[in-house]
Amino acid sequence: MVPLSFAGHDLMALPEGALYWPAREALLVADLHFEKGSWFAARGQMLPPYDSIATLHAVAALAERTRARELWCLGDSFHDSEGCERLPADARALLTDLTTRLDWRWITGNHDSLLIDHCGGTILEEAEIDGLVLRHEAEPGDPRPELSGHFHPKLRLRVRGRQVARRCFVASATKLILPAFGALTGGLDAHHPEIVRAVGSKAQALVALEDRLLRFPLAA
């Protein structure tokens, strides 16, 4: 984990694409997209059916490593609002264990806006805690400091003649977008106009390594 100061709060950025909030002992993740594989399979595109359990194991490992007491999911936790009902037994058991042990909050997103509680935790459209707004998609007109997801940002660079893509955070003075955490999620180029529009001018792509945070300007 590496320190990341945002809107007067001391956060920690993890290379896996999550945030840890020490003052609240809270782990924050975005865009888990559980059961994306089964959603596509039902429509004839066969994808490996292990995305949910792989993502849950990754979440559980970070929760244990950080000793988090709270866990906030910033929307699109399921690929569709019925995804929880399709969870395989092992994934459902692990998720239920996590939502029982942690103060688990689901912020709904555009994919799971009709999410119903079948797996534990508390479902919210958005929240404001300790001066930070937590929502799924950034609202450019809202001046309040905000944590969100939705865009799945990735930084694409050419290094020694090779194209390299890394999941990244995107930050401005009042906006901080988390990358997608799910095992079966793609990514939108961090330079994309929709991302720049969402965060405003002077935004940066932030790539968290184990020992440092790399910053790349996105807009003048």
Question: Would you mind describing this structure in some detail?
Answer:
- It is a single chain.
- Strands 1-2-3-4-5-6-7 form a seven-stranded mixed beta sheet.
- The protein has a single domain, classed as Purple Acid Phosphatase, chain A, domain 2 (4-Layer Sandwich).
- Helix 2 (about 50-65) packs parallel to helix 3 (about 90-100).
- The chain is built from four helices and 17 strands.
- It has helices spanning about 35-40, 50-65, 90-100, 195-200; strands at about 1-5, 10-15, 20, 25-30, 70-75, 105, 120-125, 125-130, 130-135, 145-150, 155-160, 160-165, 170, 175, 190, 205-210, 215.
- The protein is about 20% helix and about 30% strand.
- The chain has about 220 residues and is an alpha/beta fold.
- The radius of gyration is 17 Å and the shape is globular.
- The mean pLDDT is about 90.
- GO terms for molecular function: ligase activity.
- InterPro entries: Metallo-depent_PP-like (IPR029052), PdeM-like (IPR026336), Pesterase_MJ0037-like (IPR024173).
- Keywords: Ligase.
- This is DNA ligase-associated metallophosphoesterase.
- It comes from Sphingomonas kyeonggiensis.
Mind describing the biggest β-sheet? 7 strands, mixed
Residue stretches low in confidence (pLDDT < 50, at least 5 long) are: none
| N/C terminus separation | 28 Å
CATH architecture: 4-Layer Sandwich
Content-based structural category = alpha/beta
The neighbouring-strand order within the major sheet is 1-2-3-4-5-6-7
Radius of gyration: 17 Å
Mean pLDDT: 91
Instruction: Figure out the total of helices.
Output: 4
Order of helices and strands: EEEEHHEHEEEEEEEEEEHEE
Shape: globular
Measured by DSSP, the beta-strand proportion falls in 25-35%
**What CATH first level would be assigned?**
Alpha Beta
Helix content: 10-25%
- Strand elements, count: 17
The structural domain count equals: 1
